[in-house]
Write a structure and sequence with these properties.
With 410 residues, the protein is an alpha+beta fold. The protein contains five helices and 21 strands.
Length: 410
């Protein structure tokens, strides 16, 4: 068959192919949903919001300060004859640190002692004479004037004894001051003088410094705004603290390790630093091993109080809107997604502490939020076990600890 003879047959088949193509386009499409009824309802992972007692704490910077500090200075002048301590060692209260040459002060003491003995002898002689004159004046054997002179001499001798006793006491004190002692117990630093150095009474240069390190103070700084919010929360009942009990404090050292012993908040300053707007808080810590040394930088967590109905949610369930405000997606009882505006300022581990926007019993969406939007239907799948339900059960015996952060989300 030639090409010209095949062309009429192909032209005849074109209408048939067009009919079949149109029939295929008009055929009904297969549905993706069950039974052909539409798209399936998306599944989202939810956790049920709970409220439980939680201990709120603030993390504050601080520095260590000695519990007591004494700068040792001489109270009499002279030559240092001996240094009687080891630098950096432990010192007991009243321990002799330096011995000043006592020769001059010993001689003054001996002289005052002899003068007192002479005054006492004169007093005794005057007392006996006045006693004799008292009997003689009654018999008119001596004149009244002689008796009055004897009485005056007795009083003068008694006054001389008092003066010499005071001089002896002063000489004794100065002699004792040649033994320079420590007024407190603690660790002593390096000595500023050596044997043979000349020192003067109440000089500006301290011979050595003794610091008591057990217990030890930690001075913390907290903004006045934080203090005002804390007081308001305690007054409103949002936070609870046992009456008369000082807040507990724990420390994290410069290397990131936790200090094993717990401290107590002692007091807070009554004035605000105008330059920083902060208030200084002072806490005391036991320091038996002298791990804490004066001047160390530490981070302290201070207990503020217990929030009896704190709401804690996984961070995966808190998102941000276009303005950066925190929001959450909640699945209501009708199976519809709701968008909630939140207020929160603190984190606790991997959870947010919610101030408002969520309540106990709400079903918070933590997985699959990208598949739904507000007003849409969704199917709930409980995934609470993946977000610390075991930790929540252990928290019933011991309240959680929520740490305040510097950044604030409103």
């Amino acid at each position: 068959m030639t090409a010209d003879s095949r062309r009429p047959a192909m032209v005849a088949l074109l209408p048939v192919a067009a009919v079949l193509l149109l029939a295929g386009c008009d055929a009904p499409k297969q549905t993706a949903g069950p039974g052909g009824g539409g798209m399936p309802t998306p599944e989202v992972g939810i956790v049920t919001v709970e409220a439980r007692p939680t201990t709120l704490v603030s993390e504050l910077p601080g520095r260590t300060t000695p519990y007591r500090i004494a700068e040792v200075r001489p109270q009499v002048g002279g030559i240092i004859r001996d240094r009687l301590f080891k630098e950096g060692g432990q010192i007991e209260i009243g321990q002799v640190l330096y011995q000043i040459d006592p020769a001059v002060y010993q001689a003054t003491f001996d002289s005052a002692q002899a003068a007192l003995a002479r005054s006492k002898a004169t007093l005794e002689r005057a007392r006996l004479k006045a006693k004799r004159y008292a009997n003689l004046v009654k018999a008119n054997a001596v004149s009244q004037e002689d008796f009055d002179d004897a009485e005056a001499a007795l009083k003068e001798a008694a006054a001389s004894v008092a003066v010499d006793e005071a001089d002896l006491a002063s000489a004794r004190i100065n002699l004792e001051y040649t033994r320079v002692t420590s007024p407190i117990a603690g660790r002593i630093g390096r000595s500023a003088v050596t044997q043979g150095a000349l020192v003067t009474a109440n000089q500006e240069l301290a011979l050595a410094t003794v610091q008591q390190l057990d217990p030890i103070y930690v001075d913390l700084t907290q903004s006045s705004a934080q203090i005002l919010r804390l007081r308001q929360a305690l007054q409103d009942g949002g936070l609870q603290r046992p009456a008369g009990e000082q807040p507990k404090v724990t420390l994290v050292l410069e290397d990131g390790s936790a200090y094993p012993l717990e401290g107590r908040l002692e007091f807070s300053e009554v004035t605000v630093d105008p330059g920083t707007g902060a208030v200084t808080l002072r806490a005391s810590f036991p320091n038996p091993d002298h791990v804490l040394l004066p001047g160390m930088f530490v981070r302290a967590t201070v207990e503020e109080g217990v929030r009896p109905d704190a709401v804690l949610v996984p961070q995966q369930g808190v998102q941000r809107d276009r303005r950066g405000n925190p929001i959450a997606m909640v699945l209501n009882q009708a199976g519809e997604v709701e968008e909630r505006a939140l207020q929160t300022t603190r984190t606790m581990g991997d959870r947010w502490l919610i101030d408002s926007g969520l309540a106990a019993g709400d079903r918070l969406i933590v997985e699959g939020t990208q598949k739904v939007k507000a007003g849409a239907k969704a199917k709930a799948v409980d995934v609470g076990g993946k977000f610390g339900e075991s930790a929540a059960s252990s928290a019933s015996a011991q309240p959680d600890r929520a740490i305040g952060q510097l950044d604030k989300a409103h």
